[in-house]
Amino acid sequence: MNEPMLTKMEAAPISSTEFFARSKTRLNFDVPRGLVDPNIIPKTGDAGNDRMLEIVAREQPVRPAAVLIPVVDHREPTVLLTQRSPHLSSHAGQISFPGGKIDAIDASPLDAALREAEEEVGLKREFIEPIGYLDLYGTAFGFRILPTVARVKPGFELTINEGEVVDAFEVPLAFLMNPENHQIHSKEFRGMERSYYAMPFAERYIWGATAGILRVLYERIYLA
């Protein structure tokens, strides 16, 4: 693993009102074909990651998944994140968004994200205003993750399902959307170097798909 580097693309901070306004303008609920089509590879902008996803698509079945990006509409907005249970078979103990695989009972990726948020942390749908889908995100494990950006009204009470997560916590949106906090690390995949993001916050180490999706959110809403 190489030493972390900070990204160089920067954008001026925006207000919470502007964040939600831009999100509503720039996002929609069109489901990308690549969610289930192995021949459509999500692009990452990193040559090593793009090559890795091509290899994974040939060797593993596509695993459609959905997550919720719950932006809590405090005066200073926050993002609600979870810490996965340590006994899970994949990504144990990692920081993630509420979400999981899309089941046959789910009417849409949005429905899957809302269902998982309620199952994992007890976040009720009446507090959630879905805004739209972010870009499709691929992982080394064959997951195709479709994130839903949502505005969440404060005042909710959470009930943690410890079979899936051990904690839920909020991180200031301003911290996560500050490129000075976006570290780039690299690791090897079958002889190729690929990069990944990390956004350490206090004792929490936010990295991998979660940090990568947050970076995509920054690029779509703050840079576009």
UniProtKB/TrEMBL annotation:
Protein name: NUDIX hydrolase
Keywords: Hydrolase, Magnesium, Manganese, Metal-binding
Lineage: Bacteria, Pseudomonadati, Pseudomonadota, Alphaproteobacteria, Hyphomicrobiales
InterPro entries: CoAse (IPR045121), NUDIX_hydrolase-like_dom_sf (IPR015797), NUDIX_hydrolase_dom (IPR000086)
Residues in Nudix hydrolase domain copies: 61-197
UniProt xrefs under PROSITE patterns: NUDIX
Membrane-crossing segments per the record: none
Domain of life: Bacteria
One Gene Ontology MF term: coenzyme A diphosphatase activity
Cofactor(s), names only, from the UniProt record: Mn(2+); Mg(2+)
